[in-house]
Specification:
alpha+beta; GTP Cyclohydrolase I, domain 2; 2 domains; 8-stranded mixed beta sheet; two-stranded antiparallel ribbon; EC 1.7.1.13
């Protein structure tokens, strides 16, 4: 199967089905984009992609519609990602399909997405009775957006990144809500917030903000953008430890939230930001 973006349903006229169809999932190989930024078989990070799906429904054995919010955790070392429109179409195919239980739906999603990604994913459901407990939370950290600066660079430019390589290392967490990139095929905007935690030479805050803003006209999937940010910071700023976590606003009832780190720490929480 060809797993390049131009062969996906992305950006093409689509026939929607409401009968379960696992073949709608379209995998895209991670290694193609990784090779472009110098990532080989030995990954310089680990982490996960957290997908939240808000438009999931199916029929119970009596024909009554059921709903849930699904969260899918895809390991960063999986061979593939799943193209997001194909994932939306796949979830839409549950709408008029009868399942005996929510567990059966969850197990089906786990099986199908694991097969598409080439790795075991985990799937969690929030039932309607739990919706009222879901919370919003903004990123913790020092906001780079407070800086008043000029910029005219809107394609990723690692040369904007600077750090105090000769000075003692620091530890800090920096955040920005100004991340924007574009879908590689449709050109639709992807809006996000990013949190960068590091230990190492102090990173120049203005340069880092200009660098994040420079993604504004860049085309790349969410996961690929976060990995490029991680690699560029590692190369240019030489931190000892680095974690990059981005939360993107939803499109098509889905939000995608990649996390990459090179040191052991707890999995980030999955609390939505206000824009999500």
């Amino acid at each position: 199967m060809n797993t390049t973006p131009e062969h996906s349903p992305l950006g093409k006229a689509t026939a929607y089905t409401e009968q379960y169809d696992a073949s709608l999932l379209f995998p895209i190989a991670r290694n193609l984009a990784r090779e472009q930024i110098g990532i080989g078989a030995q990954l310089p990070f680990f982490g996960t992609d957290i997908w939240n799906a808000y438009e999931l429904s199916w029929l119970n054995s009596r024909g009554k519609p059921q709903i849930a919010i699904a969260t899918v955790y895809v390991p960063a070392d999986s061979a593939n990602i799943v193209e997001s429109k194909s994932f939306k179409l796949y979830l839409g195919s549950f709408a008029q399909t009868v399942f005996d239980s929510a567990d059966a739906v969850r197990d089906t999603i786990r099986r199908d997405v694991s097969a598409a990604c080439g790795a075991t994913v985990s799937v969690h459901f929030a039932s309607p009775f739990e919706f009222g407990k879901l919370q919003l939370e903004e990123f913790d950290g020092l906001s780079l957006d407070r800086l008043d600066l000029d910029t005219d660079v809107y394609h990723p430019d690692p040369s904007l990144l600077k750090s105090a390589l000769t000075e003692a290392p620091v530890e800090e967490t920096l955040i920005s809500d100004l991340l924007k990139s574009n879908c590689p095929v449709t050109g639709q905007p992807d809006w996000g917030s990013v949190q960068i935690h590091y230990v190492g030479p102090q990173i120049d805050h203005a340069g880092l903000l200009r660098y994040l803003i420079s993604y504004r006209n860049h085309t790349g999937f969410h996961e690929q953008c976060v990995e490029r940010i991680f690699i560029d910071i590692m190369r240019e700023c030489q931190p000892l430890k680095l974690a990059v976590y981005a939360r993107y606003t939803r499109r098509g009832g889905l939000d995608i939230n990649p996390f990459r780190t090179n040191f052991n720490q707890p999995m980030p929480d999955n609390l939505r930001t206000a824009r999500q």
